[in-house]
Amino acid sequence: GFLPARDKVAVKPPVYQIFPLDFFFECLFPFTLHDRNEVGFKLLDLPVTDRSRLGKMEKELADRAEKARGKLGADGGG
What we know:
Elements: H1 21-28, H2 48-51, H3 54-75
């Protein structure tokens, strides 16, 4: 029920990914470091006209998936 959100977000690298410290942390540091960044988006609702088509789109997608599943079974895959 929402429009897709696409945006470029600048994320500041942690200190262990900045030259020259990055060499030490990538090559000599004996532990694995994990970096986590959270980004929030405000999603916009789908217009009412698009929302009315969602049921039809969902049915079409389910039909296509069922056909693909049947084709995989007939071809010996999966």
